[in-house]
Amino acid sequence: MFLLGAISRQTKGIIFYHRNFIQNERLKRENNFLKHKLNNAQEAYLENERLSKLLAFKKNTPYKVVAARVIGRSADNWSSLVIIDKGKHEGIREGFVAINYLGLVGRVSYASDFTSKITLINDLNLGISAIVQRSRQEGLISGTLGNFLIMRYLPKDADIKATDLIISSGLTERYPKGLIIGSVVSVGEEFGGLSHYAMVKPAVNLSNLEEVLVIIP
Amino acid sequence: MKQKIIFFIIVNIAALLQTTVLNSFKIFNVKPDIILISIVLGSLSFELSWAIGFSIFAGILKDVFSLNAFGINTILFPIWSFLIIRLSKKITLDNGFICAASVAVITVVNNIFIKLINFYLGNTINISIFLPTLFLECLYTALVLPLVFKVVNPLIQSRE
User: Fold this and answer.
1) How far is B90 from chain A (nearest CA, A)?
2) How far is the first Cα of chain B from the last one, in angstroms, to the nearest whole number?
3) pTM score over 0.80
4) Residues B17, B1, B63, A98, CA torsion sign
5) Smallest Cα–Cα separation from A209: which of A60, A106, A58?
6) A-chain residues near B18 (CB < 8 A)
7) Is the ipTM here above 0.85?
8) A117-172 pLDDT per residue, tens
9) Do A144 and B137 count as a contact with CB atoms less than 8 A apart?
10) How far is the C-alpha of A182 from the C-alpha of B144, rounded, in Å?
């Protein structure tokens, strides 16, 4: 019986070869189409997640904010900036602070009518006065162009350790107090031994930024 | 004329890719400079006036999308274009390795000039960040050059 079934299957395969071939091609096309749709649905879901978090943050934040999408990044390797799709028409001006629901993103360095450039916090030339949330130790956060920030000018007896949360101190113009900057990864001694520094991991993943909120004072 | 129009579009596409897609191909936060590659290609493919023109345009595009003082690349790129044309008259740049080495040298010199100009303007870049980034950028750009040439050369060298 088994042998008869196998022979029957093989015979049908030969007889209906052309029909099976056409059906196979059609099913492959349908499969590709469905994969594409699934991918689009996945993208829409992820975007929905991000925008929901952003909206929830926008509703609960005490600041007046304008939401914007990131449409481009710096053309060179010496500056860390993003270009957003909102500008002077939406009330954005130079010097305004950019955040998202995770923390501080950067500062508007240039605003045209419909777009703006935001210097990210890991840019070399952006310095922000910050404090350790736990011990209130002050320091200056600056960028390294990479995935980490560096908090400098910490005295030798500074009360700071790994996993400490770093927030803005409010001393730098336009940066409200209490914005989350990142968390300490390691503490080291500066060359010369006179002060310490801390490597800080930004709260916001700056390489994956897709939407930001610009604070309108 | 057709090749010049095609190359103009290619420069625009290079700038677009530089600010969007290439960010996904960063290695240690460094991406290749395909705008610079495009001006090298333009300098090897067109006569002096057109090559300088394309370089100025590419420099403007790069300045628009960067935080440097506007005009740095607009001034530097035509200079490199001129030097490449002069160099191509002395040595052959058809060889892929020599061309890649030339691009690596131009990348290094270009970035050193940018660092010096930024230093003069008060924007310092720590040497411990500058040197590794410089080295990686020149290597990455030189490695990407043959790929870009392979794609773009047939479009601008054909049908004359």
Assistant:
1) 31
2) 10
3) no
4) negative
5) A106
6) 75
7) no
8) 999 999 988 889 999 999 999 999 998 888 899 999 898 888 999 999 999 998 88
9) no
10) 35
